[in-house]
Write a structure and sequence with these properties.
Structural class: mainly alpha
Distance between the termini: 92 Å
Helix content: 40-55%
Number of strands: 2
Strand order of the largest sheet: 1-2
Radius of gyration: 27 Å
Largest sheet: 2 strands, antiparallel
Number of helices: 1
Order of helices and strands: EEH
Oligomer: single chain
Strand content: 5-15%
Shape: rod-shaped
Length: 72
């Protein structure tokens, strides 16, 4: 049976084990960690872009600094 090493203590553990039998640390695959980080990054990006669109949309079309003079 193929073996991996624990990411915490370095002990050989059976491939596919969810927990190290020596130290009890949960074993997660590198791909799963990368996908989790990418998901968080994309969610944060969507929130920031949404906030920017809301702020830009709420700005008045004619700011107080520029006035338009109307003559009768």
């Amino acid at each position: 049976m193929a073996k991996n090493s624990c990411s915490n203590c370095g002990m050989d553990i059976p491939r596919g084990s969810k927990k190290c039998p020596e130290c009890g640390k949960l074993q997660t695959s590198r791909l799963r960690m990368i996908l989790g980080a990418a998901t968080v990054l994309i969610a944060a990006l969507v929130i920031v872009i949404g906030a920017v669109f809301i702020i830009v949309k709420d700005e008045p079309a004619n700011p107080a600094g520029s006035t338009t003079e109307i003559t009768p």
